[in-house]
Backbone:
């Protein structure tokens, strides 16, 4: 990686009220955002990465980050194989040099080493910042073009690797992008390294043509690979006392905003440089880019990243792939009043229909004189025209908990400063998908998920029970007190069992709802059944248990392929409950 060594003053953004028009806003998939977050490692380096590999791997899994970037080495392919079971994939830099000069003769050996762990790899990247060699190599651009071309063609011709994207080479300077020109014939995505020094992620730049901004960097990617996806394979902040640093507190504020800003700008995936500080020397900026300090203790940015991912993740790793939302997300009709001029927003939606509105200010949190900047909060009012049940607030910089927001006639207030705020907005119908949820309890029977267009999320998870009494439990959110209709979607066929639904508050006693449902049919068909009407006197999580209750005499098995669990709010009521209560 290479930093930009430029300074300039940043003018403060005034918190002036500006109107934000009311119109339905199309959401993006929440888990697509989570899947855009990555981090760099150096598994082969003889430092913290190799000396404390087990500890570093455990913290990586804990963070929730699913994507890692590293250079080709035996250590990298080993770690890729080890971390695959946690759903973590590696982007591998296929960069081989002899005496500093690219050596394409090694490309076959690189692919040989990747092939055994191909399922743990998300892509193969061209050479890293080759234009940054010193002294300059005569004909470097020709050598780089030839190397990238041979790499791309070799991957395309490889039966095992040909479905992996080949990312273009990264460059340090705009001149290098212009010199290399259009490489779209020999790469599947453009590559950028948008370091913004001590500046905020939303900066409009600090030089000609918006130099340094994310828009400027995406422009470079479009020179390299016009019309193709953009990957930011390096970026982020460092916290040493050397050139272009920020405080740990500012880094923690900037990182959630960086990922959201880059994602909103169209970057497919952003890899922060890097996961662990490589050393402790305070005057060496290269040692301090980590989410973890060199002693593996957490910087505030680690917690902010972990909490951000926890709040927005909408997927379950089934041992092979992440199962997430396939259906097209919807839209939310809302407006914001009292908005400051630096207001930023991103609307996401999970597979159960819940909206997640990310709100933040593109404010400067750290100055060119290396001091933290206090950003006074501004109260904005969110006006939601789409009917909703409740709203909750989370601030990833603080914790991973949700607090209730007081609403009135579809409106509520949120205080915004330079930290990310996530507002969770529950719709009147919640359509939970078992394929993206973890079981909170189970009798241990295997499950299988298949993609089927006729199912509610384009896929269905089957609980392959083998006896009466087998069960699994899902934890769902009841966003407010009141009356709900409980529907269960399932796929009938000739090897299905019967089931009984029950629910309880976590740790409480289960109450059965409705009658036993028989999923046997002589031919396959999807059904969605109204099970019961439930009245909840309090909001909060509820556990829903599905228990096999025998089978039809004509059925050959006990399988329970449950497609969805739907809660439809019908209003506030104090009437007696049909099917039980909790």
Residues:
């Amino acid at each position: 990686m290479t930093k930009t060594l430029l300074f300039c003053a940043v003018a403060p953004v005034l918190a002036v009220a500006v109107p934000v028009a009311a119109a339905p806003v199309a959401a993006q998939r929440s888990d697509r955002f989570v899947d855009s977050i990555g981090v760099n490692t150096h598994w082969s380096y003889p430092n913290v990465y190799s000396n404390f590999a087990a500890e570093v791997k455990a913290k990586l899994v804990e963070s929730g980050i699913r994507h890692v970037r590293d250079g080709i080495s035996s250590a990298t392919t080993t770690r890729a194989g080890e971390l695959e079971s946690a759903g973590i994939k590696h982007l591998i830099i296929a960069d081989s040099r002899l005496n500093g000069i690219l050596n394409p003769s090694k490309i076959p050996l690189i692919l040989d080493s990747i092939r055994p762990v191909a399922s743990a790899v998300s892509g193969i990247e061209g050479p890293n910042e080759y234009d940054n060699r010193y002294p300059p190599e005569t004909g470097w651009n020709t050598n780089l073009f030839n190397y990238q071309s041979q790499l791309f063609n070799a991957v395309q011709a490889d039966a095992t690797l040909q479905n992996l994207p080949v990312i273009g080479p990264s460059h340090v300077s705009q001149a290098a992008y212009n010199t290399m020109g259009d490489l779209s014939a020999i790469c599947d995505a453009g590559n950028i390294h948008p370091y913004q020094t001590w500046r905020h992620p939303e900066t409009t730049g600090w030089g000609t043509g918006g130099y340094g901004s994310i828009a400027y960097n995406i422009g470079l990617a479009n020179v390299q690979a016009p019309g193709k996806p953009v990957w930011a394979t390096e970026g982020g902040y460092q916290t040493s006392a050397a050139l272009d640093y920020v405080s740990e507190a500012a880094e923690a504020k900037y990182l959630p905003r960086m990922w959201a800003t880059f994602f909103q700008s169209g970057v497919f995936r952003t890899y922060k440089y890097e996961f662990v500080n490589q050393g402790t020397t305070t005057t060496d900026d290269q040692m301090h880019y980590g989410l973890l300090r060199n002693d593996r203790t957490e910087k505030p940015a680690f917690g902010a990243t972990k909490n951000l991912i926890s709040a927005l993740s909408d997927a379950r790793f089934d041992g092979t792939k992440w199962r997430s939302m396939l259906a097209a997300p919807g839209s939310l009709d809302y407006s914001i009043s009292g908005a400051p001029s630096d207001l930023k927003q991103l609307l996401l939606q999970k597979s159960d229909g819940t909206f997640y509105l990310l709100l933040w200010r593109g404010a400067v949190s750290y100055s060119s004189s290396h001091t933290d900047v206090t950003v006074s909060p501004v109260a904005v009012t969110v006006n939601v025209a789409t009917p909703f049940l409740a709203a909750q607030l989370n601030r990833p910089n603080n914790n991973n908990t949700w607090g209730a927001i007081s609403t009135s006639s579809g409106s509520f207030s949120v205080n915004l400063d330079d930290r990310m705020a996530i507002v969770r907005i529950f719709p009147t119908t919640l359509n939970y998908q078992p394929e993206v949820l973890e079981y909170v309890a189970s009798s241990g029977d295997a499950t299988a998920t298949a993609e089927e267009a006729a199912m509610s999320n384009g896929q269905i998870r089957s609980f392959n029970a083998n006896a009466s009494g087998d069960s699994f439990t899902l934890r769902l959110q009841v966003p407010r007190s009141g009356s709900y209709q409980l529907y269960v979607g399932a796929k009938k066929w000739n090897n299905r069992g019967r089931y009984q639904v029950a629910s309880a508050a976590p740790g409480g006693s289960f109450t059965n709802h409705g009658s036993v449902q028989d999923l046997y049919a002589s031919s396959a068909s999807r059904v969605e059944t109204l099970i019961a009407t439930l009245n909840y006197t309090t909001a909060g999580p509820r556990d829903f248990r599905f228990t096999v209750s025998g089978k039809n005499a004509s059925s050959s098995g006990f399988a329970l392929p449950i497609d969805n669990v739907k809660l439809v709010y019908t209003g506030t009521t104090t009437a007696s409950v049909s099917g039980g209560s909790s």
